[in-house]
Amino acid sequence: MELDWLETFLAVVDRGGFTAASAQVHRSQSRVSAHIAALERELGIRLIERGRRPAMVTDAGRVFAVHAREILAGVRTARAAVTAMSALSDQHVVVHTTSWLAGTLFPPVLADVLATFPAARVTLTEGDGGTEEGDAAGGAVLVVAPADREPGPRTRRQGLWWEPLRMLVPPEHPLARADRRTPDGLAGERLVLCAAAGRVLDDWPGLADRDRLTVQGPQAVAAMVRRGLGVGVVNATAIDAAEAAGLVPLDFDTTGGATAPGFEVVVDWSDLLLASPVGQAVHAGVVTAPVPPGARGSRR
């Protein structure tokens, strides 16, 4: 039984279908179907009822999903524990974050750490969503990312800030001149967004079923918008990292008490992994860093 099969199966369960799951795990829909079929052959039982729209999880599938989550959480914990031994022995710290935070939050944090521990080795891995990000995060001392995945069983979590999503459009786009920018105003528009933004919009009324193009990072969002492929959607602190010069950032309409779509950025860590002074220093730098422009503080 492959771990990829379990991750794909849980994506189908969590996203409610094969199409949405393929976007989450960055695999084709045919590959998603093949993973589910292989898992069902291995177990000898039907997990997903494909004859209904949307696809429905069977009773057996719901039971197996609980165990699949436990298996993947256990694998992540084991990887983290192995990395901890390295961190304790040679001051090697592995940190996982997003592409935009790697270039904004971490330069001053790591500059201070390396000034104090010049012999330390810091590995910074990046990812903006999907299974590959989860794999990388499993071996990290710290993970700083949107709070769109459950922390491991031995992981502690602290909120850092909350930030809204914003739209990116060319200056000649009608939305740039509109008085209100509601979901209805996006009717007929393709959305171009990163995986993290897509997961937020899935829960936002009026935007969950919009035609969308999902890309890996904010720079790709801006490039696609410039080519006229749709309305970009990025989180506020990623706009500078998106190299969005020439594009217009726009807020979603919040009149009438509406809440703008957005997400919380959190730091996850294990006390075991922070047993090294270098790990402690990186953690302290992250949790005391200033809240970036465009975000709201939510430390707790």
> What would the average pLDDT be, to the nearest integer?
81
Which percent band covers the strand fraction? 15-25%
The SS-based structural class is alpha/beta
Low-confidence stretches: 130-136
- The biggest beta sheet, please? 10 strands, mixed
Strands, helices and their partners?
Elements: H1 3-15, H2 18-25, H3 29-43, E1 48-49, E2 56-57, H4 59-90, E3 92-97, H5 99-104, H6 106-116, E4 121-126, H7 131-137, E5 142-146, E6 156-169, E7 191-194, H8 195-201, E8 212-215, H9 218-226, E9 231-235, E10 248-251, E11 262-269, H10 277-288, E12 296-297
Parallel strand pairs: 3-4, 3-5, 7-8, 7-9
Antiparallel strand pairs: 1-2, 5-11, 6-9, 6-10, 6-11, 6-12
Helix pairs in contact: 1-2, 1-3, 1-4, 2-3, 6-10
Task: Provide structural commentary.
The structure is a single chain. This protein is α/β, with parallel strands linked by helices. The chain contains ten helices and twelve strands. Strands 3, 4, 5, 6, 7, 8, 9, 10, 11 and 12 form a ten-stranded mixed β-sheet that branches. A two-stranded antiparallel sheet has the order 1-2. Strand 7, helix 8 (195-201) and strand 8 form a beta-alpha-beta unit. The protein is flat.
